[in-house]
């Protein structure tokens, strides 16, 4: 469980579950909403609900959103998705983005696809991984819209690189149907989507700073869900959204939207923390016996490290990032893998994002084979040509 009290607009602009547009709210209503958030953080869910009921009835969007979360989760009140949807809708009508995105997902889940799709598209435009996943499946299947496998692959790639587990399985299935040429096209499309997401986020931050968007004091809940193994060629969005609407999004404005790799760990109440590893001390070595110079055996020269093969025109692309430092962070994670041994790091500017690539592969087959192994290890990878 994650509970957040919202404050500075520049410090807080997140996606659907993890944030909202934040500005100060004055008066008694704000105090009641904050008191409810404090109660929620202590585990006093009934107390939080009591604090939110009056301001929600008076039309406070934050209180409506928080009360909707309580009904959605069944904490402090009996679980009631219908009531949650009603409250999310009321807050969404006042411009509450978190409520808007949750409202769209609940509408879609109960089959109101036409009504929900504008909300899904809007959430995807802000970089929400769940919405990108749903929109990508809809584009792949032609579910309520024309099929577009290039954009579908791009959206699923962005969702996967944010850590959405369902997207990894969907991409593995798409690889069997989407041609290499279309996958290469999707790289540019994904970069364009990422840049547009950054621009949308910047406009929303400006709206908060100028006082044209409502402030937020909200609670967040981000339960994890098991990954789905259903193939995208047969999976409908209705089935997918039942899982996807519970998956966490981003919390940091610096990393949301175009930072698609470094994921925030999920908080699972029932999962015990992993035990810390105790470093195994290296055994003490006995001193080597002293030998006479005449009998000393010559020591051969150390084997040199293989030089990077920079002559190949093929590369593997590992991600596209709005924050260049995150590309470096991913490289630190992957540079020691055998698939990339001897292949140098390439940081390629592409508009407002930076592509992380490893170069020097002699053929498409070599690059594709390396990508297959990297994907099996959980990394996103696409073979591309210089």
UniProtKB/TrEMBL annotation:
GO biological process, any: cell division
Single GO MF descriptor: peptidoglycan binding
Bias (Low complexity) ranges: 287-300
SMART domains attached to this UniProt entry: SEL1 (SM00671)
Domain SPOR residue range list: 308-386
Keywords: Cell cycle, Cell division, Signal
Protein name as it appears in the record: Cell division protein FtsN
Species this protein is from: Novosphingobium chloroacetimidivorans
